[in-house]
Structures are given as structure tokens and as C-alpha cells.
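quick one: fe (ii) ion bound model?
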Amino acid sequence: MSTATSSTVSTTQSPTPSQAPTAAPGRDHAPALERAFPDAFGEASYPLTEVTGTLPPALRGTYYVNGPARFARGGQRYGHWLDGDGMVAALALAGGRARLTHRYVRSHKLAAEEGAGRALFRAFGTGFEGDRLLHGLALASPVNVSVHPYRGKLLAFGEQGLPWELDPETLETRREHTFDGRLKAVTPFAAHPNFDAARGEMFNFGVSFSAASPSLNLYRFAAGGALVYRARHRLPWPCSIHDFGLSERFAVFHVSPYVMDMAAFRAGGATPMDCLRWRPELGTALWVFAREDGRLLHRTPIGEGYCLHMVHCHEAADLLHVDVLEMEEPVYDQYALPDLFPDARLAAIRRYTVDPRHGDLVARTELECRQMIDFPALDPRSGLGPYDSFWVLGIGAAASPGRKFFDRLLRYDRRQGGAADRYQAPPGCYLGGEPVFLPDPGRPGRGYTLCQELDARRGIMRFLLFDAFELAAGPLARLELRAPIHLGFHACWHPAA
Ligand SMILES: [Fe+2]
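yep, here:
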């Protein structure tokens, strides 16, 4: 049943003046990209009947993806990709059939702004006349980064806020999830929890942005859901951290000097994006914590790179391997709408090997990478152990100035030292949604990967399902949507019981 809201618009409309494409320096590598970021997307739930190819009948479960989907309200438009209100989409697969549901996360922020008919809260990259902060302290989270099943519930996460609980099937928003009252709305809580599936534990973190006592908070939740600890550690500066890694015994953070100028932020009117400063001269380090009790064990200097996303962490032969996507500088300035990724930026795939007894850096190795990549995903059967392959979205034109976007799906193989396989989207088509791995129940080591593809000029969106080890052969199935939805950020696969 379609449940489109009255206040939403189709992506096929012409851009309003505020979203008309502006000239980006360099060549335009992403024609019509602005059509991926209309004012808003509608909500709906319906079976996907336009399927080209074959959906494996044994593939049963739901692919969930979260991402920014509402970019304007009452004529006020966000200017940054991270600002859009979160929408979760659920692609349910069973018996060779598919059903899609997509709904906004009805957070307090969304409800208040919907009631007012205008933007009320300052966003990460956009401010409005008379806007406000949550309790005068923090951003009201748009809940737009990730989504995870957790102890029978479905939780949607945003940066710097508590997750929101959704109905796993209808995606109806139920309530803010306070972990049985242990956490509060202003508790620093990030959008990248890590799970130990074997032990049923969840870990997460949050940065307390403060001029006087900035801190990194590490949380451990037991299999039963109880908060085991909240460990607070002083940071040298109030810096942006987006992700972390988890191994059998350690939690690992890539702490780099992307520093919030708190005085500028508190002075009023400025957004976090306005106030973040990249200060590579201060140095980057891996911070290694004991999982058991949250103690900080080591700070290992590793140069001056920036990491948005880790690939994986694992321990082998008493050494800790920390695999990261690293860049020379942060990437948030590349998310200005509608001309994303205007600068030439390449990513490096680095492995830092640390001796956890002393914190010494034992080795730094690198896979070959000649593009910008993001949203790394692994076969979940790897757990916290070693792996060979991971999947990412890539931007082929990353070495060239001019706006661009994700247009490749790649598999990197550590045994081959670089990219082993790739799918290239047709011209004018863009990819979205973390390409999660869907294990094939009948074939150990094999599986599928899934992402979105938007044909921006024709206003057509599809989900693409690939044999995860045959990307170049093209999708096994293309599932066309009735109308495009937002290009997602992080995703997960929840197999049917
Ligand atoms: Fe992320």
C-alpha cells in the first residue's frame, strides 16, 4: 500500500532555483547529480514487480539502509549532504520476490519541524535565521547514518544522538531508544556501533565536544542489553571521530586532528562544518582500548592522515591489524549540495599492525588504490577474524577536479594486493547504499552484494544484486522502483530466521 505523504515531492520534478546546479571548478563528472537531492522523497510500501534477471529463491531476509532524504522544508534548503532528515528503506527478499518499504525516522526534530512547517534546528552544515540547538548544547540529530537490528528491535542511528526504534517490518517509528533509561537525549552517542555477533555484545562511542574537557566515551553493552560500562577518556582536542574498530580483545580508534573550534561554535550562528579545522601538524594516532573494561592501553602515532571509515580490525599471532581507509584530509567539505566531491581526493587502504603489548607500530602496508572509495563491507561470517575480500563504492574520476559521485562497485582482495573485480555504472548513473554482503545459505564462502543505482537523467532507480565475486559480469537482478528514493549511507542485511 502506498503511503506517500502530502508534503513530499517526486525526484522527477525540475530542480527549484535553490537546487539548480551551480558551476563547480573543473569538469562535470556527474551530470544531473542534483536530481539525486530533491527537496524530499515520498514514503511508500509496495512489491517490486519490475525485475530483470533472477532473484535467488534461497535468499531470504531484509536489506536495511538509512540515509538523508529530506533536504528542504518551507522553502529552506539544506546545503550539506549530512543535513537531510533520515529515511530508512527496507528491501525484503523471500522466495524470489521483493518488497520495498521506505519511511522517515520520525524523530523529535522531524516532528517539531513538520509541525512548524519550517526548519527549526541548526544542522551540521546549514544554519537558519533564529535556529536552535538541542537543549542549547548540541545538534538535533537527523538520524540519517545507519540502521541495525538489535535484540529484536530495529534501531536507526544518527551522529551525536540516541538511536530511534522502528518497527522492523513497517518502519513505523516507535520511540527514542534510551537503553532502559541509562542514556539521555544529550548523551554523546555515535552512528557507528560495532557488534560482536558471537558474544552478542554491542560497543559504541561518543565524543563530548567541550573546550575545557573534550572526551571520548566508550560504551559496552552486554548480550542481555545492560550497559556494562561507559568509559570516559580525555581527548587532547574536541575532534570529530566517525567510526572505530573492534577485535577480540580491543577497541581501536583512529584519532586525527579534525578539531572543532569551540569558541567559534559557541559564539553563535556558526555550524559545526564552519568550525571544524584540519590541523595535520598535531598528528594522528591509533588509540587502543581494552574491550573488557574500557581502559586506554596505548596511543600509537601513525602520521597525519584522516580516516572516516575503518575497514576491519582483527588479531593474529598476538598482533593487532587495523585496516583503514585513509585520506590526506577530511572529506566533509566535499559533501556540499549539489556539487559533491568537487576536489581531487584519493583514498589509501592502509593496514597498521600494532603490537598490543607495548603499542609499538610494527608495520604499515597498503593495497593499491587509485580512486576514492567508501562504505567498506565484509562477509559477516568473517566476524572479528581475518578476511580476504571487502566491497566498496568507488568514484572513478577521483583524481580529477569537478563534481563527481560514486559510480563503481568494487571488490578488493588482500591476496591480490588491490582491486580484484568491479562494476562500472553507465554514464549518468550513480550508486548508493553500503554494498553489504548477503551470505549464500547454500554455498560457504560465497554470497551476493546489493546497492542502489540511480539513472539521474531518466529519474529511474534500481536495486542491483550481484554475485559478490562476479561484479564485472553485471547484476544478477535489477529491481526497478516505482519512484526513486534517496541514495543511502550505511546498510545491513538481516537474514530471515
Ligand atoms: Fe559512516
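The longest strand covers residues 306-316.
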